UniProtKB/TrEMBL annotation:
It comes from the Bacteria. InterPro entries: Glyco_trans_8 (IPR002495), Gtf3_N (IPR058591), Nucleotide-diphossugar_trans (IPR029044). Residues 3-100 form the Glucosyltransferase 3-like N-terminal domain. GO terms for molecular function: glycosyltransferase activity. It comes from Lactobacillus equicursoris. Pfam families: Glyco_transf_8, Gtf3_N. The lineage of its organism: Bacteria, Bacillati, Bacillota, Bacilli, Lactobacillales. This is Glucosyltransferase 3-like N-terminal domain-containing protein.
Length: 309
């Protein structure tokens, strides 16, 4: 089970920055987060071996799949923080989210670029980071506040949003990826895809993401219906528009005439979805009667039934 940790600085003078980090850590505890304690100490006195041992001790409670919110600056210097962030990634598989409570110099830019989630605790820090990150800011930088007059981060709201983001990310990581290909000149074939989707969700307990390869013969009404079918059953739909002109001439070849245009669209799956390691393609006019998350059973079925390709 994924655990979420938030760092907190100890053994440091109670400056405004340290007090704020304590406050944010307390807000995280109230939401069920675990503390990743970091002690302030003279890092420069460590040999590389001593620092490595110290970092291993700091992250020893982390497990693969956990997520960490690292509050910066820690007071131990950027080099220490950079090595800690990479050690966190080694243990969990994820670079930490960064929660910034003080102005950071350009030397922090590599860390900011590496993280996929950055939170600012004051509006002016948010604006500075936005300028520093440029186009990347819209993808990863967040600032949560109660109203337009607020200048300081609202701790509970901020960390609740982070929890929500991690939960969605984990859910999507566990999704079964399923593809359909669809053309629908008369507007009736989309309903068959809907039936296949419903039967899939009925028998598959894991979250499902349906990738529907379609052309301009599938109208907005049917797209909306398919989206609602998925949404009402806790699944997602992603539509991938295909230019049918790519296959119109090819489909006239004698050896391909037995395939519909939609049947040829599936050849584009590797190009359209290059980041997916595994996806299951299904014909649109089928009824699913088994759990599609049972990979061994699916592979056995494919091997025994030559009609399934």
């Amino acid at each position: 089970m994924m655990k979420i940790h938030i760092s907190n600085i100890h053994n440091a003078a109670l400056s405004d920055r340290v007090k704020l980090q304590h406050k944010l850590a307390e807000a995280g505890h109230a939401l069920g987060m675990y503390e990743l304690g970091i002690f302030s100490y003279p890092v420069d006195g460590d040999t590389p071996e001593q620092l490595s041992t110290r970092l291993d001790g700091l992250v020893s409670s982390l497990e693969h799949g956990d997520r960490v919110i690292l509050q910066l600056p820690t007071g131990n210097g950027r080099e220490f923080e950079e090595k800690l962030a990479w050690r966190i990634q080694t243990y969990t598989g994820h670079y930490p989210s960064l929660l910034i409570s003080e102005n950071l110099g350009e030397e922090y830019l590599p860390m900011l670029r590496e993280s996929d989630s950055i939170l600012a605790d004051k509006r002016w820090i948010f604006e500075d980071l936005k300028q520093m990150l440029g186009r990347e800011a819209s993808e990863k930088l967040s600032f949560y506040y109660v109203d337009n007059e607020s200048t300081n981060l609202e701790a509970s709201l901020c960390l609740s949003k982070v929890l929500e983001k991690y939960t969605v990310a984990k859910k999507r990581k566990d999704e079964i990826q399923i593809a359909f290909a669809l053309t629908d000149k008369d507007g009736t074939y989309s309903s068959r895809v809907g039936v296949a989707m419903l039967s899939t969700m009925k028998h598959t307990p894991q979250p499902v993401c349906f990738h529907i390869l379609l052309d301009d013969t599938v109208d907005e009404v049917n797209r909306r219906r398919l989206t609602n079918i998925a949404k009402e059953n806790g699944a997602r739909v992603e539509f991938h528009l295909v230019d049918k002109k790519l296959f119109t001439e090819l489909a006239q070849e004698d050896y391909l005439k037995r395939f519909s245009l939609a049947g040829l669209y599936r050849l584009l799956i590797p190009q359209l979805l290059p980041n997916l390691k595994r996806i299951l393609y299904l014909d649109a006019d089928i009824m699913v009667t088994c759990d599609l998350s049972d990979r061994d059973r699916i592979i056995l079925c494919v091997r025994m039934n030559s009609s399934l390709k």
